[in-house]
Amino acid sequence: MRPFRRLFRLQQHPRDLGRAVDDELRFHLDMTIRELVAAGATEEAARAEALRRFGDVRAARDRLTRIDRAYARRLRAADTLESAWQDARYAARGLRLHPGFAAVAVLTLALGIGVNATIFGIIDQLFFRPPAHVRDPERIAMLSMLQRGETGVGQQTFNYPVYRTLATDLRSAESVAIASFRAEPLSLGSGLQARNVRGMLVSASYFTMLGAGAERGRFFSAEEDAEPAGVPVAVISDGFWRRQFGRDPQVLGKALDIGMQRYTIIGIAPPEFTGTELGRVDVWLPFTAAMARRSASPSWRSNPLPSYAHIFVKVRPGIPLSQLASDVGRAMQEHYAELWFVSGRHVHLTPLRTARSVNLGTNTTITVLLGAMATLVLLITCANCANLLLARALRRRREIAVRLALGVSRARLVRLLVAESVLLALLGGSGALLVAYWSGTVVRLLLFGDVPWVRGSVDTRVLIFTAAAALAVGVAAGLVPALQTSRPRLTDDLKSGAREGGAPRAATRSALLVVQAALALVLLAGAGLFVRSLHNVDALRMGVQPERVLYGTMDLRVTGRSAREGDAIFRDALARVRALPGIAHAAVALTIPFGPSYGADVHVEGRDSLPPGEGPFLNLVGPDYFAAIGARLVAGRDFTDADDRPESPPVVIVSRTMARRVWPGQSALGRCLRLGGAAAPCAQVVGVAEDVRRQEILEDPLYFVYVPLGRAAPELGERLRDRYIVAYAAADAARMIEPVRRAMQTVVPGLPYATVQRIAEMPDVLTQLRRWRLGANLFSAFGLLALLLASVGLFGLISYSVTQRVHEMGVRLTLGAPRWSLGTLVVGQALAVSVLGVAIGLAAALAGGRIVASQLYGVSPHDPLVLAGACLTLLIMAVVASVLPAVRAIRVDPLVALRAE
Amino acid sequence: MPSPADLELLQGTLDMLILKTLTWGPRHGYAVAHWIRETTGDALQIEEGALYTALHRLEKRGLLQSEWGVSENNRKAKYYQLTRKGRAQLRDRSESWTRYAQAVFTILRAT
Q: Which of the 8 DSSP states describes residue A452?
C-alpha cells in the first residue's frame, strides 16, 4: 500500500524527532518478533534474537536522532530562505499592481534618505573620518594659545623660532612639527603658463609625526630641512602626479619650478594623503628650504613675533595630552613670556581631527544643526511612509482578514507586510544614492566650493549609511501598520466594504500627520531665521562690495626684483587693468579688506594718546582706491596723483570712526597726524572714508589711516612690499577675472602666477559667510521637502477619509445640508490636523530657538514674523492639499452614495 | 561483529543495497532489512542498527525521502523512497561498482 503523498512539510520539534525514531525502531523490533514467533519461536527467544540482530539499540537511537536533527536544521534554514524569497516576490507583485503608491513611497524614501546620505557624507568627511595614512591621530594635536574665558581655538599660528624652541624643549612630546597654516597657493611655472598649486611648507618631522610613508621615492630628511637654507626638494601628492605628470614613472628627480625656484621631486605621497589638511594638497616643500628662498632677509629664523604657521605636537604613548599641554605652557613662559601671544594666555591643544576643519568656518553647533535637520527629515520620511503603508494596509484589510481566517499565522502576515516596506526601502535606498550623488555635488559646489574635496560625494561609508538608513526606515515604517492591521476585528472586516475605517487606525494616521506637520514647521521656522540672517549680513555695509570688487596680486619677491622694480610692474599692470572695458575704477594698495593687516604708530597733534578703540591700522593706497573697493568718502576728498609722488606734501585719509572719536563734534579735515613717531612731519587729514572691514564680516568699526602709496613707497624701501590691484567691475565681476589676470600676467615676460578673484571668493570671506549660507540653504531645502512630504501625506489622508464618508455625506445631503458645507467639512478636517501640528511645532521651534540663537544675525530666534510665516505656510498647505478631496465631496451624488450600501 | 575494515567496505555496499532495494517502491526499514537478508541469503552479516543509520544518513544526503504511512498490518510505519538524486546515484555507483568487482574478480582468478 502506498503511503500518503506529503502535503506539508511540518516543522518538527527536537523532542518529536526523538519520539519518531523510537516509533520507527519499535515498529522494526515488533515486526521481527512477530516473524520469529510465526516461525515457531517463543515470545521470549524471539525478543532476544530480535535485539541481537539489531545490535546496540540505545546507541543506534542516539545516532539516528543526531542525524535527523542535523537534517531538520538544514531543512529549516532552506525553508526560511525560500519563504523570504516568496515574501519578496509577493511584495514585488503587490507594488507592481499599485504603481502610483509605489512611486510616491519610493520617491519619498529616495528624497528623505538621500538628503540624509548627503549630509552624512559631508559631516563624515569634515569631522568623522580619520585622516588617511596617519598613524595614532589621537596622539597628535595642534597648538593654540587661548585668552582666559575665550572659547574656540584662539591664536593658532606661530613662527619658526617658537617651533625650534619647542622641538628641543619638550620632554613629553614624541615629535614637534611646523606646517603652513593652510595649503597656500604657490605659483608653478611663469608667464601665461603659470598656474597655482596648493602647497604646504612643512618640517621634516611632519612626516615622521604622521607616521606616513612615501608611495614612491621618500619624504624629505632632517638634513634637507636644516638651517640655514635646506635643500630644494619636493614631495608631490598622488593626485598631482596623475594630473601634472600622467603618472609618469620617471617623475622622481624631475624639476618643479615653484615661485621661480627650482625644486627636485624626491617622493610621491600615498593616494588620499593630505596630512593635517582636510582638502587637496599638491606639493610639500621643506620648511627651511622654502622660507629661505622666499624671504629677503634671514629674520624668519630668529624673529618670534610674526604668526604664519601651525605647530603640531605628538605626545609620547601613555602620556595624557594635558601633561604635554602644561609642558608646552612651561616652555612658552620660560622663553617667550613677554610675547603678545603668550602673556595672559594659556596653552590649548586641539586634537588633529578637529584641527583639520578649523579653517572651514563650520563649527560644532552648525554640525549638530545639520545632523538634527537631517534627522528631522528622516523622521518625516518615516512618518510619511508609515502613513502610506497604513493607508494601503487599510485598503487591503479584507484580503488580510481572509488570509487570517484561512489560518495564515500573524507572524507570517507581519513578515509579508514588513517585506513590502523593506522592498520599498531598498528601492528608495537606490534612489537615495542617486539623490545623494547629485545633491552632494550641488551642496559641495554651492556651499563648500573652496574645499578641494579629496573623495567623491558617494563612497563606501555613504553607501553603508544609506543601506542601513533604508532598512531602518523600511522596518520602522512597515512595522506599525503591519502590527495594527494584522490584529483586525475579523468579522467586521470580512463584512464591510470600503466604508468603516476603524477609529483607532484613523487616529494613528492623524497622529503621524500631526508629527509631520510639527517637524515641517520647525524646519520652516529655521529656514526663515537663517534666510533673514543671511539677508541681514548681505545688507551690511562693509565698506567694500565683495561681489563687485576684484583683487589681483602676485609675489614678485620670488623673481628677485627690488621693491622699486616691483612697483613699476604694478604701475604698468594698473594701467592695463584700467584700460579694460568693463572696469570702472582700479587702484594699487598695500593690502585689501580681509587681506593681511598692518598696525600704524599714530600721534595726534594736541593729544597724548588716542581714545580707546581698535587700531589704528594702516593701508597704503593709490588714487581711486575707495571707488575701486566701492567705499564712500563721507567728507573731504580722495587722494589725487598730486598726493601720490615722493615729493608731495604728506596727507592722510582716516576712517569715519576714527574721525568721530578723535575729534568728537568737529571736522577732521585739515587736522594734523604724525605717523611713525611724535617727531614725524605733520600729515594733513584731507578726507574721511566710511568704515571698511579689516578681517571680520561682523566686527566693530576700527581706526584706520590711509596714506598715499606713491609717496610712502620710496621711504619704505624693501619693507611692506605686498601689492594688490583692486578693480570695481561695471557689470559682471566674475567675467572680468580672466581679462584682469591676463593683463597682469603679461606686463613683462616670466612673471609668477597672478591670483585674481572677487573679494567674495577669498577663503576668509567664504568661511565667515558659510554658517549663514549653510543654514539658509539647507534649512530652506529641507523645509520645502518637509512641506512637500507633509502635503502629500495630508492629501492621502483626506482623500481617503472622503472615500470613507461618502455614505455619510449622502445622508447629510438627503437631510438637506447645503453642498458647500461638505467642502467645509473636508477642509476643516485637514485644518484640524494641521493646526494641532502647527501648535506642537511652534512649541518645539520656540524651545529649539535657543540652540540656533548664536548662529543667527540680526534676528531673534523667536522672531514673530518668521514664526507666523511658517505657521501660515503650513496652514495654506493644508488648505491646498484638501481642495481636491473637498471638490470630490461637494460633487457627491446622494443617490449613488446611498445605493452603494 | 564485522571488523572495522569490513565496516568500511560495508558502508558503500550497504548504501548501494538500500538504494537498490528501494527501486521497487517505497518500503519501511523492516522491509528493507528483510529483503536484504532474503536476497543475500545471510551471506552478508548486516547489523540492523547500521542499516537504520545508513537509511537516515541517506535521507539527510537527499538520496531518500521518508514519510509516515500505514503498514500491511495497520501500524504506523516510516516509509522510505528514492529521490531523483538517489536514483541517479544508484545508476552511477552500480556501474563503477560492477567494474570494480569485475577487476577484483579477475585478479583473484589470475592467482
A: -
Minimal Cα–Cα distance from A54 to chain B, Å? 4
- SS3 of A284, please? strand
Among A1, A31, A60, select the one facing B52 at the smallest CB separation. Answer: A60
Residue B50 forms contact with A (CB below 8 Å):
yes
Question: In sequence order, what are the residues at sequence separation of 6 or more whose Cβ sits closer than 8 angstroms to the Cβ of residue A8?
Answer: none
ipTM over 0.90: no
Interchain contact, A63 vs B53, CB within 8 Å: yes
d(CA A861, CA A854): 9
- Structure confidence by residue, pLDDT tens digits, A515-564: 888 988 998 998 899 899 888 988 888 888 888 999 999 888 777 788 88
Note whether B47 contacts A55, CB cutoff 8 Å. yes
What is the C-alpha to C-alpha distance for residues A489 and A707, in angstroms, rounded to an integer?
89
Of A154-163, A180-189, A585-594, the range with the highest mean pLDDT is A585-594
A-chain residue closest to B58, CA distance: A67
Cβ–Cβ contact A25 with B under 8 A = yes
Condensed to tens digits (0 to 9), the pLDDT of residues A850-874 reads 888 878 888 898 999 999 999 999 9
Distance (Å, rounded) from C-alpha A515 to C-alpha A510? 9
State the cell numbers at A310. 601651525
Q: Which three cell numbers stand for residue A728?
A: 570695481
Residue found by looking up cell 526601502 in the block: A425
The Cα A805–Cα A498 span in angstroms is 10
- The residue count of chain A comes to 901
Which chain B residues are closer than 8 Å to A30 by Cβ?
75
Among A1, A28, A63, the residue with its CB nearest the CB of B48 is: A28
Cβ of residue A832 closer than 8 Å to a chain B Cβ: no
Distance (Å) from the alpha carbon of A67 to chain B's nearest alpha carbon: 7
Contact B47 A53 (CB under 8 A): yes
For A667-680, b/e burial (b = at least 16 CB within 10 A) is: ebbebebbbeeeee
Name residues whose C-beta falls within 8 Å of residue A303's C-beta, 6 or more positions apart in sequence. Answer: A159, A161
Instruction: State the sign of the Cα–Cα–Cα–Cα dihedral A462, A466, A467, A469.
Output: positive
pLDDT digit string, tens, across residues A220-274: 888 999 888 889 999 999 989 998 899 999 999 899 888 878 999 999 999 888 8
Closest CA to A178 of A80, A308, A282: A308
**Helix A14-38, helix B48-60: angle, nearest 10:** 140
Q: Which residues of A touch B10 (CB under 8 A)?
A: none
SS3 state at A725: strand
Q: Considering only CA atoms, which of A542, A794, A790, A509 is closest in space to residue A690? A: A542
Q: What is the band of A4 on the pLDDT scale with cuts at 50, 70, 90?
A: very low
The C-alpha cell of B99 is what?
567494474
Among the partner residues B30, B57, B60, nearest to A28 by beta-carbon distance: B30
